[in-house]
Write a structure and sequence with these properties.
The complex is a heterodimer. Chain A is mostly beta strands. Helices cover 0% and strands 49% of the residues of chain A. Chain A contains no helices and 10 strands. Chain B contains no helices and 11 strands. By secondary structure, chain B is mainly β. In chain B, the strands form 2 sheets. In chain B, strands 2, 4, 5, 6, 9, 10 and 11 form a 7-stranded mixed β-sheet that branches. The model of chain B has no long low-confidence stretch (mean pLDDT 97). The chains are: A mainly beta, B mainly beta.
Chain lengths: 116, 107
Amino acid sequence: EVQLVESGGDLVKPGGSLRLSCAASGFSYSNAWMTWVRQTPGKGLEWVGRIESFISGGTIDYAAPVKGRFTISRDDSKTTLYLQMNSLKTEDSAVYYCTTDDSKIWGQGTLVTVSS
Amino acid sequence: DIQLTQSPSFLSASVGDRVTITCRASQGVGSFLVWLQQKPGKAPKVLIYTASTLQSGVPSRFSGSGSGTEFTLTISSLQPEDFATYYCQQVHDYPRTFGGGTKVDVK
């Protein structure tokens, strides 16, 4: 079964850190360009960033609001995508989804709440 | 960044109705447009990619058309399971961007 399963969402204080994971199965993960997308009631769906497959060069791009604070990485041996989030702000509160870059496969999402 | 403007934002319809949603891009995206469906508490699900290609398993009552800056999602005969929010997304350039969504509700 083709599947993406996120984990790691939690309640964290402003300025804190959190690492999200996304376990992939059922498709050729090592060849896939992977993306993180977040969703809030107020701002809708927002692209966070993307990592190319290593065979394509592994380039990583970030959305402006998270650049310098978030880091995307991948471990193809574990077919897992990661999102390291540092210096978290209240406006980072959202449901975070991992997806394939073509948007054909989505995880179920994991909730991140940044609040004191 | 490419802005996507969906209309309408909200649509009331009945089972059996033909429904049309429009997505306009601030600059050309070729055919690199995806339509997504989202139900409450669930992740978005792809319906159509490359503007008009139906994703495997999606009912044929869904169709997409357009290229460049104007795109349309049509549901030929609305079914009870189609009441949801629909989003367009451009996959032409980075950052990827999404439309603001169209909520299809029961009339």
